[in-house]
Amino acid sequence: MKRRTFLQVAAGASLAVGLKSVGAGSARAESANTGGLTVKRPPRFGDGRDWFFEKRFGLFIHWGLYSIPGWHEQHQWRGRIPRSEYVKLADHWNPVHFDPDRWLDVMEEAGMKYITITAKHHDGFCLWDTEYTDYNTMNAPYGKDVIGMLAEACHRRNVPLCLYYSIVDWHNPHYPNEGRSHELPPQPQDSPDWSKYLEFLKGQVRELCTNYGEIHGFWWDMNRPGYEDPSINDMIRELQPKAVINNRGFDDGDYGTPERDFHADESLSFVKPVEACQSVGIQSWGYRKEEDFYTDRHLMRSIDRYLARDANYLLNVGPKPDGTFPEESVAILKRIGAWYHPVKESFLDVKPVSPLTDNRDVMLTSRGRTLYVHLNQDLRGNFVQLNPINVEPVSAKLVNDGRDIDYVVRFGPWSHRAEGQPAYLNLINLPMNEMCNTVPVVKLEFDRSLTDLAQPSSPMDGDSGFRIPGNDA
């Protein structure tokens, strides 16, 4: 591999180790030591919930009656459909091709390690055998317990199962639908009573946490009334001690849930566990017949930008009414898997160390003396400067396909105003045009601690090691 030193002058800037920490809650971040570099990371739970920090990448499923018209998971609300009309969809719920093992096959091919499914979405239709309402899969033509079937497959294959539950309910007459965002206007059949609805909700949560073996997470959504009651999450933890609980329920829960826009939080680390969520489809989380899809590159960048910051990621697919995944969704997951499997070593058992460089066009993760450079934004050219790092690595490889990457410590024209005319480590001749539809990750191996990558500077003298480009002496 070509390693040319144009100007062997060390950088004058000292290594910055402070992290900007912006999290989804007030939990105190833990400090972790990486070869002398102290970074802030989301605190671990110290119990069975720590599976969450090992699995990292999961599959989100939005599935229910709304898949039948195939327009949006909030069809009833966004389409202004009266409850009396929407409920007729239950007469057509018959996903005869639902095969949970096929779902898990596709999930694993994409590199995902756990699954979260909408047991009950806003429309109130339940995908399990519940005694609290007849509005469920058992009373439809299908007549089978979807959650039970998926739970059995997950237990058999050792896949963590998490359950989504909407607090808003467009079917239950006791839920106080008042026409607020994500609520129906009052319906003729309503008899709003929050205390009765809470008893219904608690009974269903207890069912889900009791009847389906071990579950690993509870994903609340849409606490429109803003009601607080920590005892509900306490019940979940008592019944399912390995279950992580998100922050959209009746208290702050265990982790935050940024959604859709991956540029919304540009902090370099989080002080509380985070699980970002995104869907392969732009318009809907549920199945949409004429869906518009995100590009592979957009999704890969989104995944990379969260995993590189020690966060988890849920990527969603909306199954069709027959229980199968849309072909384009499967194709997207396959292409993401082809990218993710080779680069996953840069996400697993690593620490976020982006402050090692001032270059905000990249993100860094590390393990021991190994540094991973995540090229998850548009670069202006075919090189990356990692100032203030000014030490050559022992090796540099593109993790995506194993090829060697050229590098050089050099003083560039853009640095001419910098004090001491510093030289910085540059990754050069990067195949950015060739890999414009993916996220490249470069693996740098060093022979020293990562805190020793910015050496003290020395001013240029008469013979400072300057070499004319092309004349390697």
Tally of extended strands?
17
CATH class of the largest domain: Alpha Beta
Q: List segments where confidence is low: pLDDT < 50 over at least 5 consecutive residues.
A: 1-28, 458-473
Number of discrete domains: 2
Count of helix runs: 9
- The amount of helix comes to 10-25%
Structural class given helices, strands, pairing? alpha/beta
Mean pLDDT: 88
Give the biggest beta sheet.
Answer: 7 strands, parallel
> In one word, what is the shape?
elongated
Strand content: 15-25%
The CATH fourth-level homologous superfamily of the largest domain: Glycosidases
How far the N terminus sits from the C terminus, by CA atoms, comes to: 16 Å
Q: What is the rounded Rg? A: 26 Å
> What is the CATH topology assignment of the largest domain?
TIM Barrel
Features:
single chain, 473 residues, Immunoglobulin-like, TIM Barrel, 5-stranded antiparallel beta sheet, 9 helices, disordered N terminus
Summarize the structure.
The protein is α/β, with parallel strands linked by helices and 473 residues long. It is built from nine helices and 17 strands. The two termini are 16 Å apart.
